[in-house]
Structure formats: C-alpha cells, structure tokens
Amino acid sequence: MKIDTQGPTFHFDPRLLLVARNLTSLNRIGTVLKALTSTWWSIDVVIDEGSQYADGLDERIRELGFRRIGWEQARAGTWSVILAAHVNGKLAELTGPMLVVAHGAGYNRRVFSSTHDPQSSAGLSCHELVAGGRVFAQVIGLSHEEQRSRLCPAARPKAMLIGDPVFDQMNASRKRRKRFRRIFGVDDRRTLVLVSSTWNGHSLIENHRDLVRRLVAELPRHQYQVVLVLHVNVWTKVTRAGLEMALGHELAAGLLIVPPEGSWQAAAIAADVIIGDHGSVTFYTASVGVPLLLATDGSTEVDPASPIADLRDEADRLDLAADLRVQIDSAVQRRDEDRFAAAADRMFGNQGRSWSTLRDVLHELAGLAPPKEELHMVPIPDPVPIRGAYVSTALRVKTVIDPAPFDTHCEVECFPAVLASSQTRPHSVLLVDTEEVDPRFTENAEIVMNRDAGSLHEARHWFVQGTRDWPGAALLVAVTGEETLMHFVPDGLVLRTAPGVDPVLLAAAVYQWHVDGLGLDDEVELRIGASGAVRATMVRPLLPLRSA
Known about the structure:
- It comes from Saccharothrix hoggarensis.
- This is CDP-glycerol:poly(Glycerophosphate) glycerophosphotransferase.
- The structure is a single chain.
- By secondary structure, this protein is α/β, with parallel strands linked by helices.
- It is about 30% helix and about 20% strand.
- It has a 9-stranded mixed β-barrel with strand order 16-17-23-24-22-21-20-19-18.
- A hairpin with a 4-residue loop joins β16 (about 395-405) and β17 (about 410-415).
- α7 crosses α13, α13 crosses α14 (about 280-285) and α15 (about 305-315) runs antiparallel to α17 (about 340-345).
- The termini are far apart.
C-alpha cells in the first residue's frame, strides 16, 4: 500500500498579493480589503523596501494578521490580483493583474524626487507608472474623474473611477458623532479642537511646533478639548516615545493624541473645528462639514490644479499673532457644513459606491464573479486616544462674578497650571487636589480639593487635618458621595452645596464670591456658566470643626 507522505492540503483561490511601501500605504490597503468580504482569498504581503518611513511596518503587518513573504518569493509567483497604494517602477517586477490606488485623499502633491516631473502630482506621473515602455498596472484607481486629465497620457486608458472608500466610510459614520465625542470626553458644552499635521517641511508641526502648546495653555479646560492627529510618517521618524516626551507637558495638561491606529477618522467626525495644513486629514475633515482654520498651506508643494488647492484658496487662515480662542469660537459659530462641498465633490467622485466598485474591480481582475451578498458598510472604529500617564490636577482658575440682583452669574475659566502661571494668568487662583505631587503647586495652592472625602463625618475630620497639611490654603473642598462641602480658612465658615455642578467650577465661584466680599448669608444662589443655578447653603452650625 502506498502511503501519502504529503498529507492533506488546504487550497485557496484566488491568490491576493498586497504590496506595502510604508505604514501609510498599508493602512489604505487595510481599508480597501474591507470590500472583499464573502470571498476566500489566500493573502500574502510583501514590502516594497526602500522607504525611509518603513519602521514598524513588519510589526504592523503581524498585528493585522497578515503573512509576510519576501520580494523574491513575490516576484517568482503568479498572482490572481496585486493591490498597492503606491506606485513606482519596481512594481513591474510582479506578475499578475494589478490595481493601484491613492494612499490619501487623491493626488495633490508635487514631489519631484518621486515624479521626476515638476508639473505632475505624485502618483500620476509617467516616471512612476511606466516601466520597460509599458504601463504595468491593469487598473489605476481614481477618486475623481478630474484626476484623469492630470494623469500620465500613456496611463489614461488604464484609469478607472473608483471613488474614495475612506470618505464614504466617514460620511456614513457621521451619525456616530455623539458616540465619538463621548469617548473624547466632550459634550455639547465643550468644543473639540482638532489639530492635524502632515509630515514634511511645509507641515503645521514643522513650522509651528509651539501651536499645540499655545492651544492647550490658552483654551480653558472645561470648555475646550484639544486633540492632535499627526501623519504616520511623523510617528515613524520621532517614535511614540519621542512624541510623548516632546509633548509631555501638553499631555499632562490634558492634550489627547490619536495614534495612527487609533481612528483619526473618528476624531475628524467628532471635531467642532480643525486647525490644519494641506494634508489629507485636513481635507477629509473639512469635507464632512467641520470648520477649517488653515495654519500652513503647503506652498509650492501643492499642485495648483488639484482640489487641495481649491480648499486652500477657500479656507480661512489662522492668524498666529491674534487671539486663538476668538478665531476658534468665530469659526465654530459660523459653521456651514456645505462650505467645502464643492471642493469635496471635485475630490471624491462615485460617492457612496466606492466600496462596491472596489469589490467588483478586484473580483473581475481575479476572474471571479462578485459575491451575491450585498456589501456591508462597517462604521469607523471607535477612537483610542493617547492620554497623559498623569494629567495634572493643578489649575489656574479665574472667576468673574456679575452680582445682578436676581441673577448672580459667575464665569469660571480653568487653565492647566503646568502651562500657566500667575504671570501669564493674572488675577487667577491656584487650585489643586489632594493627589497633586508637584511641590510648585502643593506649596502655593489657595484652594485644595479632596475628591474622595467619603462621608460627612470623614469630611469633617479631613477639614481639621487639612488646615494642618495645607497651611497656605484659603479654601478646603470636600467632595462626598452626595454633595460638596467647602471650609473657608481661617474664619471657619463652612458651606454645603447641592450636587450636579462640577466641584472645581463651584469651588472657584464660591471662593471668588467670598473674596469679593459679597457676603454669604444662610443661602446664596449662583449661576455658573451654562451649568444652571446652584445653591450654596451655610452649614457651620451643623458641622462643627472642633478637633477631638
């Protein structure tokens, strides 16, 4: 009897080869693959080596669950379909029908080192698309027909309108905006300011490195949340550890950073305004209706015939010499979701159908009929922002009181003390909580807050101990499970307040009321910002502070 020494085999057809140049191209390939559900594919990934931004590519391939093969193995094989989100002549070495697509929002940059043509956008030049006298890709995916006129003439017969799967997915996911905002810690009373930067010498982060710090320092924490999105090439060059070191103070002050795998699209949908440059994230965000303030415009790098140039000409510019908060508030108030609709329509064709078109094209190239099932649109994943390992509780608090006869209004603004001082924030008060460790703040705090005071009985004992532990404090604040208690030192006045208002805002308002000498009778009613009215009731007779 003959023994089968080969064993059973598990055979897949068709064979799909993914060609990754860097993390940017791999991320776009990952989006395209979502159109290939319901078909069994044998998938291999090969790296087109040579990019200076390829660090981390191997690790990311493994995280996504792909199998990597070497270039020689890829070149020796015959593939049912080859998919790439970049172009260069080396791709001509591979055998099989090939689809190439843009790795960002269309083709907009003039990069002579790639194109060898000062007039061509990267991805559309003959130098990149022609090798050995032939156009090597069977299909060149366009996100809009406008790109055909800027495409290498020899390649135009291979061009096909596909659209943009990222834009279509973002557009469909706009209804999840409230969910995304909640993950970023933002409700309708806070403004999410998204800062986006591409990666090269014309980028926002290269030209205005202090802008993120200014925004975090100048925008009150309770009213604004700053979120930073950086091009993956910045992460590759600087590394996550390097970025967290460089932005350590900003992270401690409350900055959120969205990593490349952390769903920048969700941040774009959640934003109230974007401060950006000529990168794709800026264009995508403006295209889904978010007001745009342009910090840098890409200069001569932007193809003047591209839709990015149209957006640049239409967008408002951020004046770095003027008040940033005023400009942000003005942009948010003038929000017009259709303002950049014309530019978006010129960038993104075949809207709403790019995924089904991609599925049809890839199956046709493989000689397969598309699946009979309707394509299922999946939403943008939830964001996973990077937060500071420790966000400082020290705040510079500034309160303005308008003691109207029947409507006492208090405006409270809180700024991170790690980026502010009494000089940069005059007439402010330093507030810390009991977990603060920086002696610069603990030794100079005027308001000290215990956010976990426990019961009323435990709060009483903490007030007694707090006068010893925090001898420089003028106000001790104890947050119990039901209410907030405030003890003014040294006069012994104790107030209790109803729940429902942020204790930081409440403490700042009551403190300023007392300092201004407006008087605290048995009961006073304050209206703090948009929080509504809150009552503060004097309870000194009910809560004696004598030590045992």
